[in-house]
Specification:
It is a single chain. The protein is of the alpha/beta class and 116 residues long. It has a single domain, classed as Rossmann fold (3-Layer(aba) Sandwich), CATH 3.40.50. The protein is 49% helix and 14% strand. The chain contains five helices and three strands; from the N terminus they run αβαβαβαα. α3 links the parallel β2 and β3. α2 crosses α3. It is globular, with a radius of gyration of 14 Å. The N and C termini lie far apart (34 Å).
Amino acid sequence: MREPKRNKIQSHYTALSKNYGGSIDYVNFQFYAYDSSTSVSEIMNYFNAQESRCSGAKVLASFVMGGSGGLSPANGFFLACRKLIDSGKLHGIFVWCADTSQSNDFQYEKQCRLSS
C-alpha cells in the first residue's frame, strides 16, 4: 500500500517541478502526505529524491498538527530535520496549521526554532 501512495505523491512534485521549476523558490515537502508508519530513513530518502527534482528550489519539511499522517514530531520528525540540517539540506520547517497549534501554545513551532 505504501508504494502506490509514495508514487502518487512524488508524481505531483515531479509535474510541478517540470512545468514550473524555474519559477519556484521554495517547495513545501509535505511529510504528512505519507503514511503515518513512514520511518525517518524513508522520509530522508523521499526528501533527497525530491530535492534532486526541484531545479534549485529550497525544500522545506512539514508536518501536520493532529498527526493525521506522515512522520510526526512524536515519531521522529525532528530527528529527520536534525539530519537534514546537519547535511545542509533543510531550508525551513512548515507546520500545518496555526489554528491547531495555538491550542498547545505553539509547542512544535518553538521546538522548530530550537532545532535550527
